[in-house]
Structures are given as structure tokens and as C-alpha cells.
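A quick aside before the break. I want you to see a complete sequence-to-structure record at least once, exactly as it would be stored in a machine-readable document. Don't worry about memorizing anything.
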Amino acid sequence: MPAGARTETGGELHSRLRQQQLLSAFGREALRRSELDDLLQEAARIAANGLGTNLSKVLQHIPDEGALKIVAGVGWRPGVIGVVRFGTDLESPAGFALRTGAPVISNHLGDEGRFRTPKLMVEHGVRRAVNVLIRGEAGAPPFGVLEVDSRDPREDFSESDVDFLQALANVVGLAIDRDRDRRDRELLTREAHHRVKNSLQIAQTLLRLQLREVEDPEARLQLEQAARRIMTIGAVHERLFSGPAIGQVAVGTYLHGLVEDLRNSLGVGEGSRPLELELSATAEMAVWDGDRVTTLGLVVTELVTNAFKYGRDRVLIRLEIAALDGAGTLVVEDGGDGPPAGYDQVRGRGLGMRIMATLLRGGELVPQWPAGGRFRFVATLPPAASGASA
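That is the input. The structure line, written in C-alpha cells, reads:
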């Protein structure tokens, strides 16, 4: 075999091994990354790198516009990605790949009789192009096209290059399916929480209407407390689908909203008995799951209701959260005398106390009579589950 042929074969083998390494690395990246836009940009970079060029692009099919839009890419002038669109007709290389599903190699764009060269590619001096389809699950419309371009007319794209590019596009297709499934699940979850919130609002409204028909003071009190408990849970569901992530609630935002709701439902303001909230820096920034926030909200609601029922003066809510494990210390303080010394809140007969004793399993609720004529309940919330944000 001539020496030149051995060198060429060795270079070809080295190129294929490098492409396999790039595919393997991209596969791991696709499993790790959750943001589809970032993954598409990485796919464009890997595609150009694997084929030895500095120009590539990911084109997404926009059916309503009858166009392919560049959504990721490398090597293009500013203002191209996210803006420039190509046609989907058969005279466009990318359009041909989209419509036929077949890969397209065009090693002589200037002399091509099959396709026209898009203006953008002429501006960038593109001489060669290769396109493959990005498709997801069987039966679903294709996402679009992965294309690599080159200004160098001397070395043709090969069928092996197509194989590499198609394998890369297939991994992208799997990531797109995963992203679509995630968005579908989020949509269903948001709808579920929205319906639960609406149902709780209806239940709260019915209780408020029932209050108009009840004359017994104790019965009215119980109905009002039940309505506040429903309000507390409903506020959690409202924020479960508007928070930083599905199923996660920003604790500070939730408590500020809850305090405002309690002011309205209890009829208190800035007068002789204001309701105030103090949060540590960690508590202000904490993000908890819905169950933990529901527990926190119900405990706050019960303690604040009791403070306004039995206490005096200002009512203060203070929450501190440990940065390491997410354990919380909740204090609700007022100017009252509190329950008699030796009172056992766990065995207390009140419904509110029994609710809190159930909610705080793994934590505790302790009455305190500090100096200065104040009374406070101190509730300890257990550490967050492993992996939860503090």
C-alpha cells in the first residue's frame, strides 16, 4: 500500500475515533443538562468540532410560519441565532432534509443544480454543507435539522460524517422527547394544583356563607378557623405552580402573603394590635416543598389565631432556618399571659393544638414566658429531607 494511502487511512481512523469520543461526551452531557437551549447550543458546537469546521447550526421547524429558524449555532455573525429563518421547500438543503427525512450532502454549493444557496451562507462564504434530520419519538413531527457548513472547498463531507452527524442528531432527539415529556408533566401538575386551589376557594366561600346563618359564637369561631385553615392550604397550592419550580415554594414570599391574608381575615392592621413578620436571611431565601410549607403555614395560622384570641398587644412572627439542614425555629409572640404554667399543649383538648401536635411530628411546640410581660410559642420544624433546599 502506498505511504500516502496509509497516512490518509490513519487520519481517517483518527477522525472517526475523535467523533466517537465527542458523541460519548455529548451523551453524558445530554443526561446531565436540563435546559434544552443549552443542549442545542452544545450540539452545534460538537457538530462543528467533529467535522473540523467552525460553522454549524440547529434549525427548528416552525410549522405555522412554514420556516426553519436558527435556534443555536456557532460561527455566525451577531443577530443570526434566534432570528434568521430558511424556507422549507425542496430547493433548500435544510428544507429537503426536513421534507424527505434523508440526509443531504452538498460539497459544491456554488455548482449545485439541486439547491439554491441561502443568502446567509453566501455572506459567510459557505462552500459545502451537510444536513440531517432531528427527529424524536416515532409518529411525532420532526424537530428540525442539524447542519454543518464549511468554507473550505478542498475536503468533501463523507458518508461517515453523515453517520456521525445523524448519531448526534438522534441524541438531540431523545433530549427533546425528554424535555417535551417534562413540560407535559409540568402542565398537568400545574392544572392539578390550579383545580385544587379553586376547590379550596369554593369550600372557603361556602364556609363564609354558612357563617351568615350561624348565631352561636362558638360555632362561628370554629367556622372562621376552618375557613382560615383552608385559606392557608389554598395559598400553598397557588404558589406551587407559580414558584421557582413545580412543587417548590419560596418560603419568604409565601409567609409575606400569608401574613397579609391573616391580617384581612382577622381584621387586624397597624393599630393597637399589629401583626408583624421577621425572617432571617436564610428563611427569606429558602425554598421548601409543598408539604413542608403547608405544615409551616398551618402552624403559623393556628398560633396567630390563638395570639389574637387570647393575647394582647403586638403579635410577632419570627422564623429562622438553619443553613446546613433546613431545620426551622418558628416563634409567635404576643403580650398575653399564655396558657397556665404546666399546660400540656400536646394533650390539650383544643382542635388547633391537636392539629399542631400532629403536624410537628419530629419537632416540638414549647410555650415560654420570657421576662418583659410577653408570651411566646416556639415551634421547632424538623430538618429538610435529604436533597431539599433550605
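Two observations worth writing down. The radius of gyration is 32 Å. The longest strand covers residues 55-62. We'll return to this after the break.
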